[in-house]
Amino acid sequence: MPSAAERYHEDTKYTPENVRRPGRGLDFDKQPVPFKDYATGTAYDLTRFLPEGEELKSDAELEAWRAQLPSADQDLAALSHLLYFTNGITAVIPYGGQPLLLRAAPSAGGLYPTELYVAVRDHAVLPDGLYNYQVRDHSLVCFWAHDPWPRLREATFHHPALEQSGLLVIATGVYFRSAWRYEDRAYRRILLDTGHVLGNLGLYAPVLGWQTQAIGGFADGAVEDLLFLDPEEEGVVAIAAVLPAGKPLTGPSALPGPVSTGVSVPEGRRLLALHAAGKLTEATPPPEAASGEEKYTFAFGETLADVPVPFDAQLGPTIIRRRSTRAYSGDGLTREELAALLGFTYGQSGGLFAPELLETFLAVHDVTGLDAGCYHYRPEKRELRQIRFTALRDEVQYLALGQDLAGRAGAVVFHTADLPRAVARYGDRVYRYLHLDAGHLGQRLNVAAIRLGLGVSGIGGFFDDQVNDMLGIPEREAVLYLTTLGRPESR
Hints:
NADH Oxidase, seven-stranded antiparallel beta sheet, 16 strands
């Protein structure tokens, strides 16, 4: 019988029939608020560490500004900037009586289901404790003022990163924020959105002299209890340790979990059922690394050049400018631009959980020097292998639920994974790892595209099985995420 992860994936697939079923309308009277409030707790204002007035010009400018602060404030300023460029509010759009507060990381439907918590020990300013990042006013609220490390050590099965770090970022998903719109499929969206956030965290930490270590193996119930979460409403999906740059990263990024028989779950409970099926209560040694054996051997291959993305101390300003493209001009990309985008996205493995399980395909609509068609990409060799020799604009647009973005882009990136193979290695918990990593890589594509002056937009809604047919991959290969790349339409 299929595992819980395989059953969930099958039960939440989109088909031309079920996306049009009656009764899928949204109840705007129940639209969730994308913020969490605390009635009690000590608040620490971080806004005083954000430059006022002129637009931020560079990361170097911000570093120089931090350097002139009193030494005790420099650590708090660095944390302020890390959280801001990870998931802070980067634009306010007037919208009736309730303005839209856009964040550093994209979110499906603008629902922002990801909450960030910070565990602190031995900080220059902040007392030991647990904090929630209050996005709305860029502050930290301490809701538990005790040393959390003894309980976190136990909950993470004594992960060695906790001995090197005094700062953990814990990401949770607030289920209804996304389920309000996406119903049971929302778990996919929550994980992808959290992957976007972790992508920013991993990108910006080195600007501050830090690095991140992904911790995917932890006792879910223990961490939920520590954060005072209601497991029916909110669940922990990932932990990242923030460490000084240059320290060797030790300990596993992912641990295997149990495999549950994928029994039928009533509609409306599938999200919670899969999250519960992936929970850990004990540590099992991680599986041996994959052999690196080539999974897909397609005949027609060529190597992309190693083209860097020139950030020139502009990562922070790029994240601030990042927006999901709403319309493409239909003009193509250059081969060098595509090479730079893919090279940057796969150029570092830090912060990922199980990237060896992901596969990457591209639908090339218009890229100079490449024939239109479908390609498989091997990051370690920067190698594209063409597997279909035909124009796919109309087909890809249809598969992306008719969205123009997928048809007018220059190229569309598909992340997939052999789900039964992944479950065999990591149990049902692997569904988290796969989608977190796909979202993380998608965010790297986002940031690189904006820096190059290109358009980019992720798509989490598509006809699952028909995408497999178009890519020519077996049904067991789960399609996780689409990222469209192109030239934005001038408006």
